[in-house]
């Protein structure tokens, strides 16, 4: 096929995600997988278990990843990119090791990995790289030759990620009462992480917050452009866990709603810019908990959509695959990025987003695998 996109040297794309329970009996074992060795207080686990039971023990994240994998296959097929799409999770079925085993049995030697986390941080990047190293070790122990895995660069500033979020904000503004629409504040929401891991995130530190601020600035400017209204915005945090003595990024979204109300803001749009799909952290922490807080305050609020399986996001992934494949072949492709930070690094340098306890991590300069 002459107009086919060249995926060489890659043989497969692996969608790597968090995973979530798909029934009440999955909830406890899932939470045990997530929190193994991470020092989460027991009460917090029981609390988070209740979030899942409230939705029948089903997180929507797996269905969302199935839809994203389908959207990628459709987009790739429509553009002549012949690259099989596999899917595996860190914390639930289908597990990463099983997905990688399928990839190897298909004969793939070089695999590109897309994680469902757009930003740099230990939880959003290195921890997935550690999971890859563990799975490669497991395959080796089974006598299989581990493939070489590379991770796609962070896509928080790719237009195919930001444009659908902007559209979601415009739609959410449209759901607010007209009288408060122009005065609405924008609250960009992401997962809180310990301040210590925020400080050491990315190749030079501070990447987690800097990348979110860059994304938020682009979206706020695009919303201003589209509506002719300059709305105040702020980056806020949600889903804090861990021990209360350890400092995590603040302010919490619910505290921010109180501040907004106290300062006379007429309305707010909550924008889950830190997440790729409307999974449990969005459905519970924003749609349930933060919405209840807004209601209690009498603050009109709307929550905007995440990118999910938007065709523009699928197209962005195709662009990123094409870009990386060309780079690996020694070409110098165009690297698309909005905002001020520029396209992110392709290969995490040694020590990027360090863990508290060092562990082998694949798909980076410090990978023990080729
Ligand atoms: C940065 C980040 C992302 C975004 C990047 C990415 O997407 O990867 C993310 C995503 C997610 N986090 C999720 C769920 C959970 N995260 C937890 C705990 C933690 N998350 C952390 C950070 C992040 N988390 C951290 C620093 C902890 C503390 C413990 C530790 O250091 O590991 C816990 C334990 C209980 C608790 O909340 O305390 C649960 C259940 C789900 C699944 C939702 C679903 O089921 O639909 C998703 C997509
Ligand atoms: Fe999390």
From TrEMBL:
Location(s) in or outside the cell: Cytoplasm
Pathway(s) per entry: Porphyrin-containing compound metabolism; protoheme biosynthesis
Catalytic activity: Fe-coproporphyrin III + 2 H(+) = coproporphyrin III + Fe(2+)
Residues reported to bind Fe(2+): 191, 281
Highest taxon above the source species: Bacteria
A Pfam family assignment: Ferrochelatase
Binding positions for Fe-coproporphyrin III per the UniProt entry: 59, 128
EC number: 4.99.1.9
Gene3D superfamilies cross-referenced by the UniProt entry: 3.40.50.1400
PANTHER family (alphabetical): FERROCHELATASE (PTHR11108), FERROCHELATASE, MITOCHONDRIAL (PTHR11108:SF1)
Protein name according to UniProt: Coproporphyrin III ferrochelatase
Organism: Streptomyces hazeniae
């Amino acid at each position: 096929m002459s107009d086919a996109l060249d995926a060489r040297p890659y043989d497969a794309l692996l969608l790597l995600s968090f995973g979530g329970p798909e029934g009440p009996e999955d909830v406890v074992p899932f939470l045990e997988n997530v929190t193994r060795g991470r020092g989460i207080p027991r009460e917090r686990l029981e609390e988070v278990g209740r979030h899942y039971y409230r939705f029948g023990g089903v997180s929507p994240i797996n269905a969302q990843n199935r839809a994203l994998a389908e959207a990628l296959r459709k987009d790739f097929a429509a553009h002549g990119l012949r690259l099989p799409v596999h899917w595996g999770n860190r914390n639930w079925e289908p597990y990463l090791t099983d997905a990688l085993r399928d990839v190897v049995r298909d004969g793939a030697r070089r695999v590109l990995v897309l994680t469902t986390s757009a930003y740099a941080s230990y939880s959003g990047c290195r921890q997935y790289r550690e999971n890859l190293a563990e799975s490669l070790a497991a395959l080796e122990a089974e006598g299989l030759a581990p493939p070489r895995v590379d991770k796609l660069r962070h896509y928080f500033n790719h237009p195919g990620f930001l444009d659908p979020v902007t559209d979601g904000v415009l739609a959410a503004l449209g759901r607010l009462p007209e009288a408060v629409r122009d005065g609405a504040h924008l609250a960009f929401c992401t997962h809180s992480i310990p301040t210590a891991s925020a400080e050491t995130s990315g190749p030079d530190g501070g990447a987690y917050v800097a990348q979110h601020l860059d994304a938020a600035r682009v979206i706020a400017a695009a919303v201003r452009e589209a509506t002719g209204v300059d709305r105040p915005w702020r980056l806020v945090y949600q889903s804090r866990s861990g021990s209360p003595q350890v400092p995590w990024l603040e302010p919490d979204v619910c505290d921010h709603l109180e501040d907004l109300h106290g300062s006379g803001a007429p309305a707010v749009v909550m924008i889950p810019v830190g997440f790729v799909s409307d999974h449990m952290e969005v459905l519970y922490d924003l749609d349930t908990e933060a919405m209840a807080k807004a209601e209690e305050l009498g603050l009109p609020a709307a929550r905007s959509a995440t990118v999910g399986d938007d065709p523009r996001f699928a197209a962005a992934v195709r662009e990123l695959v094409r870009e990386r494949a060309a780079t690996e072949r020694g070409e110098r492709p165009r690297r698309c990025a909005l905002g001020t930070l520029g396209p992110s690094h392709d290969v995490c340098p040694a020590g990027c987003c360090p863990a508290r306890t060092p562990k082998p991590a694949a798909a980076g300069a410090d990978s023990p695998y080729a």
